[in-house]
């Protein structure tokens, strides 16, 4: 009997995919469209100091674009197959621990046991595949999945608008929420300032063209026109799913019912889901009108938000990983069928969940994951502290201990102007009324705290008034004076309250997963520093939480609790007066278009040779690496728009409206080319791209000239921003650093040298070479000043170099490592880099920009590696800077 194939349950393809993207980033980006790179660079925290997205959000966005541009919307199991075999889109890349030629097996990077392991994993990945790509982005709660989802939708719409023929981009978006509470939180997609994540030159297009449809009640309708684009429909499953009629048909209804075939044949799985409750005839099913309207929107992207509110078996069904689908997944499947029947498609389903695990197993269609432990370790969430009460403690004593501890630890200490909140959960409304609330009121009275700080929200109108709901919705505001929030069942419904600092659970709730969902509510970050979230539990609930953390995140309370072995430390940094002000020059360039008095003739080459660039061919080959056995011109089979003389002139006139160029001017210019306007119409109808790639730029240069203006502006730059002349408060910062990479102003080794440096009372370096360079230059007798300027890179310093990114051509900011003044009057900017990074295109772009800035600012720039220190720091090394220049402080 053949040996049964087993699957490595710990196999995480998303880890390998992330590793591949990061190690091949430069080469992969050559496959991205320019607009994709521009949007990525705008949101990259390493390139844009003002980037809005957090690092995990940006990495997920980067993976999203990778799947779109490089992966071409392939299913995850298809990507895995091509990755494992170094074929398809991965051909020519090193993927699986193979050698530089790309040859090898799955041994190495993933430590998989040969081809049998591969086959078993591939079978597991493909067995639940849908007709559409189904991706899972697993970011733990509190990292901003809603904003990430909005950014992905904006990206899709921008690309769909620019590349209208490319069907891999979504032209419409349907956003699913699991319940009504989370549905309300999704309004952030509509209210969010999209300029935070979209380059300014594209923001107005989105503001003008986005159409929101918010289905928050059963009476809501979708106003989207059939076939229209850039609609964002926000709903929960219940507002979209096909439903059966509520009323039983009368004898008259049956007599006059239209016989139109069986809906069970059309809706298959969805009809079967009703099971024993299925109506006697198919005519009893009523197709939801919203479903029909959505099915008439082309190139639909489906986004499932807060999928992590379903856990275990429910999550497995919702994300399409189980044999039996949920109502949500079946609705999506049926939408895909309906769209396919209309010759369009569900471009992809993008699921945003809090965990990559189901029942302690990795879901195979996860493409990016950022876990709970990493989010805590990297300060994207509060640091949890677990307080477990063991023994036979009474509920009143538990409440007294919790509130007293919370008041001593947090009290009325405001963060971002908001009072800290403590949520106390009761198992039932009756428990809250007769047990929990009286105990809390008694304890507050003992501590001298006003009971008016209590707020009750249980979903019962008799106990929770409209005023209570208003207070609950404004808890995260400085105006709220409520601190003790009494809840029943609210913890699992997407309640997002950043000023929540504590959660208490005494009695065992009916749902085990509720313990996990409710306790994690208090970990959302607030303020510039990592605060602590206090979790108060009975021993029984502590054991449940440990088990659920293991099942859903593969961590324990011990692993995510306060760290004992973290070798880095938090460094409180204060500016050292007086402020350092540098007088320098900024070069500014202005470009202006001026309409020509006499337009130049438009020259357009319409020969077959010139049109060759627009042809589409099909190459056939037996093996991927072989030369094609045949090449077929399939240009005529491509979809294209047909223009007449009038509509072609009208299309071109759109690009010059408001510039004083009339359609008659355009028509006259086109008539003068060889063959006239008729020849252009013929070429355009064969190759639509002639309009955008040839005619628009040629007409622009015929009608306009571009004038360039340059000037230098004197500028005073602060090495540290934030000095306030009206107060004695100095700018302060908090950073995390290894102690051996910290140089403090009060260290004895700097006695007698402090006046030569330290505009901050501590420098946190990134590497040992930086520390070595700093100490050697500081101790050099010819050094007058040395400042570490590569430390404050998020807008805290005005001393920065603006450069053009070599790929996206966007403006980015760069902070050189050191500013050094020598006793010969020379000033130097020094960048410390590893030898292997010297020729990196981005490093070279920064170097070029710094050198250009230096030319007009009378200082010099050098990029130095650790291997060059001895030569560079010698007298002859410093003398390489010519001529002698000074920089005024």
Structure description:
By secondary structure, the chain is α/β, with parallel strands linked by helices. Among the domains are: about 375-565, Rossmann fold, CATH 3.40.50; about 585-710, no CATH class; about 715-880, Trna Endonuclease, Chain: A, domain 1 (3-Layer(aba) Sandwich). The chain is about 35% helix and about 20% strand. It is built from 31 helices and 31 strands. The strands form 10 sheets. The protein has a 7-stranded parallel beta sheet with strand order 3-4-2-7-8-1-11. A hairpin with a 6-residue loop joins strand 27 and strand 28. Helix 4 (about 55-70) packs parallel to helix 7 (about 145-160) and helix 5 (about 75-85) packs antiparallel against helix 6. The longest helix has 19 residues, at about 430-445. It is globular. The protein starts with 12 loop residues before the first helix and ends in an 11-residue tail after the last helix.
Task: Summarize the entry for a quick read.
With 889 residues, this protein is of the alpha/beta class.
Task: Write the topology of this structure.
Layout: H1 13-23, H2 25-29, H3 34-43, H4 55-70, H5 76-85, H6 114-126, E1 134-139, H7 145-162, E2 172-177, H8 180-185, H9 188-191, H10 200-209, E3 211-214, E4 231-236, E5 243-244, H11 251-256, H12 263-273, E6 285-286, H13 289-294, E7 300-304, H14 312-318, H15 327-341, E8 346-353, E9 357-358, E10 361-362, E11 366-370, H16 372-377, E12 383-389, H17 395-409, E13 421-425, H18 429-447, E14 454-457, H19 466-473, E15 484-487, E16 500-505, H20 512-519, E17 532-538, H21 539-553, H22 557-560, E18 568-574, E19 581-595, H23 608-611, E20 617-620, E21 630-633, H24 645-653, H25 663-671, H26 676-686, H27 690-703, E22 704-718, E23 732-738, E24 742-744, E25 762-764, H28 768-779, E26 783-788, E27 801-804, E28 811-814, E29 818-822, E30 827-832, H29 841-857, E31 860-864, H30 869-872, H31 875-878
Parallel strand pairs: 1-8, 1-11, 2-4, 2-7, 3-4, 7-8, 12-17, 13-15, 13-16, 14-15, 16-17, 30-31
Antiparallel strand pairs: 5-6, 9-10, 18-23, 19-22, 20-21, 24-25, 26-29, 27-28, 29-30
